[in-house]
Amino acid sequence: MEAEVTSIFSILSDEAPGPTSLLGMARRVEAGLPLAALDRMVRAVAPDDASFVARIVPKATLSRRRSAASGTLSAEESNKVARLAKVWAMAMRVWGDEADARAFLSRPHPMLEGSKPRELAVASDPGADAVMNIIGRGAYGGGV
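RESULT FIELD:
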């Protein structure tokens, strides 16, 4: 579990050392992740979709946050980013290639009733769980 938390946090930040436990990660999320974590995830998951960031933080709110001294996300926004990082880390483990992982996350999927996996991952914990279930099926021969 420590390796998974470290892997997810390394996606979100260049900061070292990061949290090594789920509780440590939860505390970071509650305190608010830096805007850089949002930027890193959007660049990784949806670099060609300028509107994707608004699924996590509304455009006007993001503009205010960028001009604020603290430059942090709310706990709710941080949770969305952390969920997406968790899904991204799993997709990268399975596909081993950013372009392939990104392609899976950006295409509507029939097992998700035509929703894009990245949209569900941001929307809710159950949505992220559904996406991870499908990725896991691919990892263990169940097909994606």
